[in-house]
Amino acid sequence: MEMTPTAHNGANKGEIAKTVLMPGDPLRAKYIAETYLENPVKVTSVRNMLGFTGTYKGKELSVMGGGMGMPSMGIYSYELYHFYDVDQIIRIGSAGALQDHVKLMDVVIAMGACTDSNYAYQYGLPGTFAPTADYELLVKAVKAAEKQGTKVVVGNVLSSDIFYHHDSGVNDKWRSMGVLAVEMETAALYMNAAAAGKKALCLLTISDLIYGEEKLSALERQLGFGKMMEIALEL
């Protein structure tokens, strides 16, 4: 009997934990599962968007890739919340720093997510929705970072639909408003969580400097975000 709820996820109901860590890169999900989880089991590999469930310090935990961009995050997080009864998703991703005080490999916690996306159109709201993190998860993340001895920067990020922007001055405008960093998924995750009455938090490691030359390689992005991963695991 077919028990898979969606066309995008091969897991059966009950095979995904209530808490899911969600990197964009499915290979990072594989790395986290093999490095940190006890007895990880691959529960989905549809479209090579790998997902695993195991335990961490005795508690069941899943980790699954979410892909690039808000359409991809929108699909996977929606399905996890609505079809797999997930309670909270912690995105662990990379971002480009927009502010000079945000350095390479710093961990940014997204308190809110600005966006140039039309994702919120679907809700028919009579104004502009401000996507924000779950406060309880945010406080826990800050405390976990302090215990770990890792400095974190908390504030607003930008979730953009556009990686190669036609307007060469667009980053200057967001930078002038104090936005810390730019990435491509958080706003959709926070909106899906709000609409579902669930929890979400986004942790980002700075992989490149928009106003500098430093940046991480693809392999460093895949394997080198240990501090961020360990903060997320404590949530």
From TrEMBL:
The active site is at D208 (proton donor). Coiled coil: none annotated. A purine D-ribonucleoside binds at H8, E183, M184, E185, S207, D208. The record marks R221 as: Important for catalytic activity. GO terms for biological process: purine nucleoside metabolic process; uridine catabolic process. CDD domains: PNP_EcPNPI-like (cd09006). It is an enzyme of class 2 (transferase). PROSITE patterns: PNP_UDP_1 (PS01232). Pfam families: PNP_UDP_1 (PF01048). It catalyses: a purine 2'-deoxy-D-ribonucleoside + phosphate = a purine nucleobase + 2-deoxy-alpha-D-ribose 1-phosphate; a purine D-ribonucleoside + phosphate = a purine nucleobase + alpha-D-ribose 1-phosphate; uridine + phosphate = alpha-D-ribose 1-phosphate + uracil. Phosphate binds at G24, R28, R47, R91, I92, G93, S94. It comes from the Bacteria. One of its GO terms (molecular function) is uridine phosphorylase activity. InterPro entries: DeoD-type, Nucleoside_phosphorylase_CS, Nucleoside_phosphorylase_d, Nucleoside_phosphorylase_sf. GO terms for cellular component: cytosol. Keywords: Glycosyltransferase, Transferase. Its EC number is 2.4.2.1. Residues 19-212 form the Nucleoside phosphorylase domain. Belongs to the PNP/UDP phosphorylase family. Catalyzes the reversible phosphorolytic breakdown of the N-glycosidic bond in the beta-(deoxy)ribonucleoside molecules, with the formation of the corresponding free purine bases and pentose-1-phosphate. Homohexamer; trimer of homodimers. This is Purine nucleoside phosphorylase DeoD-type. The gene is deoD.
